[in-house]
Write a structure and sequence with these properties.
427 residues, alpha/beta, Spore Coat Polysaccharide Biosynthesis Protein SpsA, Chain A, UDP N-Acetylglucosamine Acyltransferase, domain 1, ten-stranded mixed sheet, nine-stranded mixed sheet, 11 helices, 29 strands, 28% strand, globular
């Protein structure tokens, strides 16, 4: 255990790039891989690393996140662990929303109860990766760093929207640029040949730069001093302002890491989990990903053709064709329907016969997908109701297209949470 490490998970802002998936929930509460939530990834990484004092900072649409965490993470009184949610609040000192990542931490310093020698581990709440965070902490202690930043080597053409850093051969950080767009600046931050030689997984013929993963380790005194300012964001202001003033080191991570900040990245990361050799393994028994225990029956698949797919507990797939898709908890897919590259998030409850009778009286589809539907390249959010003979695809539709409860974003069609698509709809 690391009793002197306090973890702070950044819940993010409004999640506009993930909209409309964040229309009714905050970003960490977005469902993932059929049965999990995004927030389960950083929490599980912490627990698997022996870190069990965890704060989640968020401020928008927090109800479902509160419910999920309260139902999922319960600790006995002997371990002393907890997962607490800290939402923006009005106090005598101010009533403003969080203005950025650093401001969110600053506004909650009085809640953390940190002691002089404690370490702060600050991580993002919207990334898919598995890391032994204790290794980052041990390197931080071993090198005598005051700040350690986890970094991932990425090709120069895959760095859009990421902070970049240049490090010496001992991994000390010498330069930092937040989300640079100038190709000359990006080129100047490319990894040296000598440093690249220490990273065997990199292609010798390509150029890379180190991207900020949004995972930081701070000494308590260093963090408190850095936040004794009006700086709002770690990447934009706090980290650049500390260069040359404190000892900062990079922890180089060479495993799978995906920043799930957009609808497209969320969609692609989910579908990749259904592949034969997925880049992220939910089946690692040594380092499990934890979530809410629902005690659901096993999935039921009848007379269906299923290719690469994940079908979660409680789902019913009856006489369908499922190709490279995720079918979430309590999903219902009726006969004759084809799902091709579909992320179906499932439902929060099973409908009873009384519910179905009421649906018929109201001429409303049951929760799930009806008969003889063809759905391609789509996200079906929770509790969506899709009738019979529906055809849905984003092909030929412009970005930000909207028709009732149907959106197109980043080339992906989305049916909203609790959305209704009447029988016979063709988009």
């Amino acid at each position: 255990m690391n009793p002197n490490v306090l973890c702070v998970i950044m819940g993010g802002g409004r999640g506009t790039r993930l909209s409309p998936l964040t229309k009714l929930r905050c970003k960490p509460a977005v469902p993932l891989a059929g049965k999990f939530r995004l927030v389960d990834i950083p929490i599980s990484n912490c627990l698997n690393s022996g870190i069990n004092k965890i704060f989640v900072l968020t401020q928008f649409n927090t109800a479902s996140l509160h419910r999920h965490i309260q139902e999922s993470y319960k600790f006995d009184p002997f371990g002393g662990g907890f997962v607490d949610i800290l939402s923006a609040e009005q106090t005598e000192k101010g009533d403003a929303w969080y203005q950025g990542t650093a401001d969110a931490v600053r506004q909650n310093l009085h809640h953390f109860g940190a002691r002089d020698n404690d370490l702060f581990l600050i991580v993002s709440g919207d990334q898919l990766y598995r890391m032994d965070l204790n290794e980052v902490i041990q390197q931080h202690i071993r090198t005598g760093a005051q700040v350690t930043i986890a970094a991932k080597a990425l090709p120069l053409n895959a760095l859009e929207g990421l902070g970049l850093m240049r490090v010496d051969d001992d991994y000390s950080i010498k330069e930092f640029a937040e989300k640079p767009k100038d190709p000359k600046v990006i080129q100047s931050l490319a990894i040296s040949d000598a440093l690249k030689g220490t990273m065997p997984k990199l292609d010798a013929g390509s150029q890379y730069a180190l991207a900020n993963m949004g995972i930081y380790v701070f000494n308590r005194s260093t963090l408190f001093k850095a936040l004794d300012s009006d700086h709002a964001d770690f990447g934009k202001e706090v980290i650049p302002g500390m260069l040359g003033r404190v000892k900062m080191s990079a922890y180089i991570y060479d495993g799978y890491w995906e920043d799930i900040g957009t609808v497209r990245s969320f969609f692609d990361a989910n579908l990749a989990l259904a592949d034969t050799n997925p880049p992220f393994d939910f089946y690692d028994a040594r380092r499990p990903i934890y979530t809410h225990a629902r005690y659901l029956p096993a999935a039921r698949v009848r007379d269906s053709e299923v290719g690469s797919a994940i079908i979660a507990d409680g789902a019913t797939v009856n006489g369908c064709k499922v190709v490279r898709s995720i079918v979430g908890v309590r999903s219902r897919v009726d006969a004759g329907t084809t799902l091709d590259n579909v992320v179906m998030m499932g439902a929060d409850y099973f409908e009873s016969e009384d519910n179905r009778r009421e649906n018929r009286n109201r001429k409303r589809p049951d929760i799930g997908i009806g008969k003889n539907c063809k759905i391609r390249n789509a996200i079906i959010d929770k509790n969506a109701r899709i009738g019979d003979d529906v055809e849905l695809s984003p092909e030929g539709k412009p970005d930000l297209y909207q028709n009732g409860d149907i959106y197109v974003r980043d080339g992906v069609l989305i049916v909203l949470k609790d959305g209704v698509v009447p029988s016979g709809t063709k988009i």
